[in-house]
Amino acid sequence: MTIQDKLLGDNGVYDLVNQNFYLNRAQIQLGDRFFEPVAFIGILTALVDGKELLYGPYGKGKTTSSEALGALLYGLPLEFMQVSQLDGHPEQTEEKIKAIIDLGKLTKEGIEEVIWRLFVYTPAKVCDEINRLPEGKQNILLKGIDRNVWTYRDSTLTVPQGCFYGTCNYADRGNTDLIPPLKDRFDIAVEVRRADPIRRELIRNGVVRDAFEQLKEPALYTEIFAMLMDSKHTAEKKLELLEQMSQKFKQELSKRFSLSLPTNDELRTAKKELSSLILEDEATLFIDYLTSEMEFCIYHDKPEHATCQKCHWKDFLCSRMGKIGGRLELSVVKYARATAWLLGEKKVTLEHVKMIYPYALWHRAEFQDNILQEYVSEPRESTLKLHIARKIVEEKTPHFIETKDLQARSYNAVVNSNANDLEKSHFKHAVYVDYVSAWDSKKDKDAVEQLLKKIRK
Q1: Which of 10, 36, 331, 425 could bond 187 through an S-S bridge, CB–CB 3.0 to 4.6 Å?
Q2: What is the Cβ-side half-sphere exposure of residue 67, based on CA atoms within 13 angstroms?
Q3: Which domain covers residue 385, as residue numbers?
Q4: Are residues 350 and 261 in the same domain?
Q5: Co-location of 10 and 115 in the same domain
Q6: How many domains does the chain fold into?
């Protein structure tokens, strides 16, 4: 059985999660197959050690679906998933999130030894209601989320790669928006939705409750907790022992659910395989096409978009939203590769990129008010910002298809230092301007400068 079969095949992890832990209908189509976004993208997040936000109303499965995925794919008992979980609230401190000093050892021996929190050790991190952390407290998480490096006072712990699920309730009196640097560190965001009456009946009848009971193992949790709190072990040794314990529990979970969970070694193999998948030229060009539109501005910077209405490039995405962080493209490529790999494809196609792009964009995007008003009255099956992100990808695709040959020619002209071919491949789009701006041939510098002046008029 392949790793893909264990995850996406009949009676695989996806079916288990979608039928027992998060019950909802499919909304993603890839070829002739349909997938439910929370379960499907949640598996991708575990595959790529990604960082994912889950938005939605109270009690719709944001936290429980994250706990289930962490328990199944990382072999952690539910009790550990819940106790190691970080709760987002205004009273959180660095000591509650990261570590404390062993006061007994400090008092008796004068040694300042750090005791790391369970949240730091777990490879499957869950922060429940992360948007209840005030803006000043959100900064505590930045380096840990981005690099898996946790610092407290003079101590630093680098933990192995792992996934991070952050749940967000929609705006209310008790929460706040995430700061842009934190949003940008999350690769992707999904929305949990209300279940239909048939699935709600299954939930009422205890399907989810009974499945969660199978994730529990009190004795193992007690053993893990004691090991992680034992000062005789170094932090590195604790991580090694946690890995061994989790692999044994995966074997037990496989028996309980009558399926074959991928081993830790198999997941590492999967990460290597998917990271080597090549993007087809069409997929790469489409990413360039969208990014150039979003970041383009002939005035270099326009914090208030004051100049957009007078600009003849005003139909570009740069006039519709604020600046996007530089991690967007990395997130799209990482998750598109995981999607292709999971489906058994040999290359990443335009279809994979188009599926992932809205989920990587919408939580990062700050759309202008006039754009929000343009789409607010449209029928939709998702929150407004995710709907707009989907529409952007749909609406930009036809023009990209129409001009992709010229775009490819422009790209190749720059790579091959062919100024003549670059001018002949001219088409009105921000990505063409970016290709021209990327020219680094000193010989044709003057010609390129003249071309830039021409297309900017």
Answers
A1: 331
A2: 25
A3: 278-456
A4: no
A5: yes
A6: 2
Residues 282 and 264 in one domain: no
Contact 163, 210 (CB under 8 A): no
Among 146, 308, 159, CA closest to 228: 159
Same domain as 9, residue 75: yes
Residue 300 lies in a domain: yes
Residue of 82, 120, 114 whose CA lies nearest to 98: 120
279, with CB counted inside 10 A (0-12, 13-18, 19+), is buried
Residues 286, 251 within the same domain: no
Contact 328, 291 (CB under 8 A): yes
Q: Which helix (H) or strand (E) holds 414?
A: helix 384-415
Q: Residues 6 or more apart from 102 whose CB is under 8 A from it?
A: 111, 113, 114, 115, 231
Q: Taking the complete model, does pTM exceed 0.90, yes or no?
A: yes
Q: H or E segment at 15?
A: helix 13-20
Instruction: Using the 3D structure, point to which of 268, 301, 334 is the last residue of a domain.
Output: 268
Q: What is the DSSP letter of 367?
A: B
- pLDDT per position in the chain (457 positions), as tens? 999 999 999 999 999 999 999 999 999 999 999 999 999 999 999 999 999 999 999 889 999 999 999 999 999 999 999 999 999 988 999 999 999 998 888 778 878 888 999 999 999 999 999 999 998 899 999 989 988 999 998 899 999 889 999 999 988 888 889 999 999 999 999 999 999 999 999 999 999 999 999 999 999 999 999 999 998 999 999 999 999 999 999 999 999 999 999 999 999 999 999 999 999 999 999 999 999 999 877 665 555 555 566 676 677 888 888 878 789 999 999 999 999 999 999 999 999 999 999 999 999 999 988 899 999 999 998 999 999 999 999 999 999 999 999 999 998 888 887 878 877 888 888 898 888 877 754 446 666 666 656 655 5
Whether 273 is covered by a domain: the verdict is no
